[in-house]
Amino acid sequence: MNHNLETDAFSVERRQILKGASAVAATALAATSLGGTAFAEDHGAHHHHMSSPKNTELAKALHACVAESEVCINHCLDMFKTGDTTLANCAITVQETMAFCAAHAKLASYDSPFLKKMSVLGLEICAACEKECRKHEKHPECKACADSCVACIKACKAIIA
User: Fold this and answer.
1) What confidence tier does 6 reach under pLDDT thresholds 50, 70, 90?
2) Alpha carbon distance 141, 137 (integer Å)
3) Is 93 a member of any domain?
4) 3, 20, 80, 100: which has the fewest C-beta neighbours closer than 10 Å?
5) DSSP three-state, residue 110
6) Residue 93 to residue 111: CA distance in whole angstroms
7) Within a domain: residue 13?
8) How many whole angstroms separate alpha carbon 27 and alpha carbon 34?
9) Domain with 141 in it: what CATH number?
10) What is the model's pTM?
11) Per the domain annotation, does 14 fall within a domain?
């Protein structure tokens, strides 16, 4: 199809496909990272980097945050379709948080030497996301995202301690 002649229906369909692809990618990321953590725990004696139970809890919290972020962003997109752009800052903050949490979860799974530094930054990023989502917590998707940020903050503090 010629991109200069795109119809509104094609644009909506393409956005829906992209949203679906994002959800699939996030699910795949969560599955591979959690699977990698389980493998490291089962075979830890054979690897230089071992995932500790503390890291596993952090990785789980971060993956849950990524999943809730996907739902929140999809809700924001649905609101945008109706012309409501009041969630624009929420969507931006949540996207940044989602990207950070996905990378942070990988480092937790690998027991990276940078994990403490990432966890310090995670406190700041997740606190900003929680603050933004709390402004819109009348939307269940925003409330769930904010709540998942609180869980990440708690897990980050456990790593830093």
Assistant:
1) very low
2) 8
3) yes
4) 3
5) helix
6) 26
7) no
8) 11
9) 1.20.1270.360
10) 0.68
11) no
88 to 16, 71, 80: CA distances (angstroms): 18, 15, 8
Q: Is the dihedral of CA 12, 15, 19, 20 positive or negative?
A: positive
Q: Distance of CA 33 to CAs 15, 49, 58, 96, 129, Å? A: 27, 15, 12, 19, 23
Q: 155: domain range?
A: 21-160
Domain count, the chain: 1
- Calpha distance 118→116 (Å, rounded): 5
State pLDDT tens for residues 43-99: 443 344 445 666 899 999 999 999 999 999 999 999 999 999 999 999 999 999 999
Cα separation, 60 vs 65, in Å, equals 9
Domain for residue 16, yes or no?
Answer: no
